[in-house]
Amino acid sequence: MLERMLFRLYLPSVLVLIGGWILSYLFITTIPSTFAESKMLSALATKASLAGGNILWITYAAVALMALYSTYRFWSWSNGNECCCKKCGGVVSERNGRYGPYLKCLACSKTTDF
Ligand SMILES: [Zn+2]
After folding, report:
1. Domain extents for the chain?
2. Beta partners for 96?
3. What's the 1 CA to ligand 1 centre distance in angstroms?
4. Which residues is 111 bridged to in the sheet?
5. pLDDT at position 101, please?
6. Whether residue 11 has pLDDT greater than 90
7. Between 86 and 11, where is the model more confident?
8. Residues near ion ligand 1 (Cβ under 5 Å)
9. CB distance 111 to 102 below 8 Å
10. What is the pTM of this model?
11. How far is the C-alpha of 33 from the C-alpha of 31, rounded, in Å?
């Protein structure tokens, strides 16, 4: 159950990392090669390549911050300072649903109200 909770805690940062890699790959390789074929867009090919490098660094910074926040939440939960699930005691995340805000456990996936 701890592994599932850690997986769900760090999953958003891993997804952002993969999305950033894909986006920067498109900007560094695919878009410049496509733009180079056109006379009007060939000037944008180098700009797209530079933007791809910037996207990569922004992605790394965002992933580092997200992972730090997840680590802080886990550390806070392990010290007993984080709001936890009423059924299993796992870390919960606040969500907004059709009937208002609720808590979803990252360990057992049960939902509870405040
Ligand atoms: Zn739970």
Report:
1. 2-81, 83-114
2. 101
3. 9
4. 104
5. 93
6. yes
7. 11
8. 85, 87-88, 90, 105, 107-108
9. yes
10. 0.81
11. 6
CA–centroid distance, 71 to ligand 1, in Å, is 19
Q: What is the 3-state secondary structure (H, E, C) of the chain?
A: CHHHHHHHHHHHHHHHHHHHHHHHHHHHHHHHHHHHCCCCCHHHHHHHHHHHHHHHHHHHHHHHHHHHHHHHHHHHHHCCCCCECCCCCCEEEEEEECCEEEEEECCCCCEECC
Tokens of 75: 């550390």
Mean pLDDT of 68-90: 91
pLDDT digits (tens, 9 = 90+) for 14-70: 999 999 999 999 999 988 888 888 888 888 888 888 899 999 999 999 999 999 999
Place of tokens 């007993």: 80
Q: What is the pLDDT of residue 21?
A: 96
CB 92 within 8 A of CB 105: yes
Q: Evaluate whether 107 touches 84 at the Cβ level (below 8 Å).
A: no
